[in-house]
Design goal:
alpha/beta; TIM Barrel; Rossmann fold; Immunoglobulin-like; 6-stranded mixed beta sheet; 20 helices; 30 strands; 27% helix; globular; disordered C terminus; EC 3.2.1.21; polysaccharide degradation; hydrolase; Glyco_hydro_3_N_sf; Glyco_hydro_3_C
């Protein structure tokens, strides 16, 4: 067996044995207590205090305990793949692109593939996923998380965490809680009303704790209601470890700890990266370390607090199956392989959102295409992506990766155009005059434009993490205007972390939003533009002008570090984040939450709802009424009984993704569980499911296109007998305009989708054929991609 075949077979065996890694928290606790029984306080302190202060190979490190055969720990960013891997790891799509797929199976596969890359490098803790809420569209790190809706963020987190942890890697869900802007994140207070704190900001963490059993959680830099999270005993100990029943360990965000008494006493379990401040001068100089023993000796906090922190770390390692035979740290194992490349390309394409299409897409029957804009060109790989020079594939900061390459749009489109004998001309600068000159005699002009954002420690073109505004960068609006004025068939492709201003909306025939798609960016957009993939992405947030939102970031230039004086972020919108606010105010957004067009058309019918003991069972029929195969995303919203006062008029509570051949119909079943039928009652200090009144169930394709409605009583007395009321579809004419995709066959589209095959059966088949299968096919089966 050659080396490549050996690697493939090892991968297969790894996936076959993944289930053996499963251990209950109770079993892990028993093993951890036995292991920790003879630890000295010095050894326990070494477990909880980072040592290399980000000067070693890993961004966070815990020292070995040689007496116990403990190799130490490696913690590494991040949500888009292994950071600082020198191009040997896959540069995945951003978290916001994962959310835009609305595809649970696909997100699980992303988690599995990412987790395996961390595992093969001997990395113990993968620092992701990020699950903060997009409450302000200019916030710098919204591309790392899953959008504006807490239910969606929780569902995405569940799949990614389960996928990552199936490999034996510890997923670190972050940032708990309220780190929803970058400016002065280390000297700010997120002042959140109690009901909103639970229903919006804690909710995604509730889900990954309860349903995904996330092994680790990273706390945030900011304060919540005046108390820094790292010192917030109520949130860390009473809520997270107490009420939510979190059994894993809590680590700090990097250099967010400024004391020992309040932070360790509040329930922090690990100080990362350990030093008081950044830099090699603080290796071994920590606010924790030996000062923990001093506090115990002086009665500041009891011995049991140190015992608990050490126990939680070891318990987490047992739960993950890492206490025996875990790989040694080697950050440069090359895992940037064809399977990961294929999966990134698929997710990048499936997360692409078609915002407008007037008979120009998919590309067909043209002889000459003009590609315009620097965003179509190869990217300049500056450190931590702290520049926007060429196409934007990810934002900047700790959430990005070391790219080996990015497939740029110009090269990918040029290669794809050869199949159809289409001539490609281009202008690779953001020069309006040059762009118009190239576009004027082309059959079709595609303008690539961009915006960017990231983490606050980096300033890019005047943007300190958070965006200064929602305008396109580099005079993008002027570029589009100039091209559209000379070519009536103009399409705009946008790479950006979130919503941008689109003053050209009525001037162009097509708008495609690609988000931040990772290394296969150009190939994915070519797949969509030419119809090799039918776009099925949907917006995981509301797209509107900045002034229409109830919230914004605060560009306070003072308060550069932590302290008692803080920038105040008042969450006065309460529960009314995103589409909820637009519903309440009666504001029509540019594009609604969940919006996304297709090259085919879908209809929804036969909505039924039945209240049962485990929750609300909803069924509906989805039909492909167009000429090509495509994937629909039926969405369920609920209006709560009137007993709940001052509440959003409707809440997103369910979805599925359904592949349909042309003319095909399928019944979709969605369960809204009892937690999602409940609201947080501040007086009761708990979630309460209304016992009387009626829920209204609405179904459709996005928050402003919900043509189906039924009512069902909270007590289930009319369960199964709800009368269907069909409302006129508010955006039916927008669903698909100008479909031109006769060359896209159902077979082609179906081949681009992950097959819905039981994972255990797929692995068993791979095992049976391991000695006979072609190597590439074997690896595909081992990864369970196609």
């Amino acid at each position: 067996m050659n080396r490549s075949s050996q690697v493939s077979y090892q991968l297969l065996l790894f996936f076959l044995s993944a289930n053996t890694l499963a251990m209950t928290w109770e079993e892990a606790d028993a093993k951890a207590r036995e292991w920790c029984a003879d630890l000295t306080n010095e050894e326990k302190i070494s477990l909880v205090t980072g040592r290399e202060n980000m000067t070693g190979v890993c961004v966070g490190s815990i020292d070995p305990i040689e007496r116990k055969g403990f190799k130490g720990l490696c913690l590494q960013d991040g949500p888009a793949g292994v950071r600082f891997a020198k191009g040997t790891a896959t540069s995945w799509q951003a978290g916001i692109n994962n959310a835009a797929t609305f595809d649970r199976q696909l997100m699980r596969k992303v988690g599995e593939a990412q987790g395996n890359e961390f595992y093969q490098r001997g990395i113990n803790f993968a620092l992701g996923p990020a699950m903060n809420i997009q409450r302000a569209p200019a916030a710098g790190r919204i591309w790392e998380s899953f959008g504006e809706d807490p239910f969606l963020a929780g569902q995405c987190g569940i799949e990614v965490v389960k996928g990552m942890q199936s490999s034996g890697v510890i997923a670190t869900s972050k940032h708990f809680v309220g780190n929803d802007q970058e400016n002065n994140r280390g000297a700010s207070s997120s002042n959140i009303p109690e009901q909103a704190l639970w229903e919006v900001y804690i909710e995604p963490f509730y889900r990954v704790v309860k349903e995904a059993e996330t092994n680790a959680i990273m706390s945030s830099y900011n304060a919540v209601n005046g108390t820094y999270l790292v010192q917030n005993k109520r949130l860390l100990t009473d809520v997270l470890k107490g009420k939510l029943g979190f059994q894993g360990m809590v680590m700090s965000d990097w250099w967010s700890i400024y004391d020992v008494e309040k932070s360790f006493g509040a329930g922090m379990d690990m100080n990362m990266p350990g030093g008081k401040y950044w830099g090699p001068d603080y290796v071994g100089d920590s606010f924790w370390g030996e000062h923990i023993q001093e506090c115990i000796d002086n009665g500041v906090f009891p011995q049991e607090r140190l015992d608990d922190a050490a126990l939680r770390i070891i318990r987490t390692l047992y739960k993950a199956g890492q206490m025996e035979d875990y790989p040694d740290v080697n950050l440069y194992v090359d895992t940037n392989n064809e399977e990961n490349t294929a999966l990134n390309r698929k997710v990048a394409a499936d997360s692409t959102v078609l915002l407008k299409n007037e008979a120009v897409l998919p590309i067909k029957g043209v002889k000459k295409i003009a590609i315009i804009g620097k965003d179509a060109m190869p990217a300049n790989f500056c450190e931590d992506m702290k520049c926007a020079d060429g196409t934007v594939a990810l934002g900047w900061g700790s959430g990005t990766t070391d790219f080996k390459y990015v497939a740029d749009p110009l090269s990918s489109i040029t290669e794809r155009a050869k199949k159809d004998n289409i001539e490609i001309v281009s202008s690779g600068e953001d020069d309006a005059e040059a762009g118009a000159e190239v576009a004027k005699d082309a059959d079709l002009a595609i303008v690539f434009v961009q915006a960017d954002s990231g983490e606050e420690y980096i300033v890019v073109e005047g943007n300190k993490g958070d965006r200064l505004n929602l305008d396109l960068w580099h005079n993008g609006n002027e570029l589009v205007d100039a091209v559209a004025s000379v070519n009536e068939n103009t399409i705009v492709v946008i790479h950006a972390p979130g919503p941008v201003n689109v003053p050209f909306l009525d001037k162009v025939k097509g708008i495609v939003f690609a988000g931040m798609p990772g290394q296969e960016s150009g190939n994915a957009i070519a797949d969509v533009l030419f119809g090799d993939v039918n776009p099925s992405g949907h917006l995981p947030y509301t797209w509107a002008p900045r002034e229409d939102f109830p919230t914004d970031v605060n560009y306070d230039p003072s308060l550069p570090g932590g302290g008692e004086e803080k920038t105040q972020y008042d969450y006065n919108e309460g529960l009314f984040v995103g589409y909820r606010w637009f519903d309440k105010q009666g504001i029509d957004p540019t594009f609604a939450f969940g919006y996304g067009l297709s090259y085919t058309t879908f209809e929804y019918s036969n909505l039924k709802a039945q209240m049962e003991e485990d929750g609300l069972h909803v069924t509906l029929t989805v039909s492909n009424t167009g000429d090509v195969a495509g994937a629909a995303v039926p969405m369920i919203f609920l209006s709560f009984p009137d007993v709940v006062k001052d509440y959003p008029s409707r809440l997103f509570k369910g979805f599925d993704k359904v592949l349909l051949e042309a003319g095909e119909s399928k019944e979709v079943k969605i369960l809204v569980d009892n937690h999602d039928l409940s609201y947080y009652d501040v007086d009761a200090a708990d979630f309460v499911k209304p016992a009387e009144g009626e829920y209204t169930v609405l179904a459709g394709s996005n928050a402003r296109d919900l043509p189906l409605k039924v009512t069902v009583s909270a007590d289930g007395t009319n369960a199964g007998n709800a009368e269907e009321v069909t409302e006129e579809c508010s955006s039916e004419e927008e669903e698909v305009t100008g479909v031109n995709g006769d060359d896209v066959t159902a077979e082609d589209s179906a081949e681009d989708d992950v097959q819905e095959i039981d994972a255990d059966a797929e692995v068993e088949e791979a095992e049976d054929s391991a000695n006979e299968a072609d190597e590439a096919e074997l690896r595909k089966r081992a990864y369970k991609l196609y």
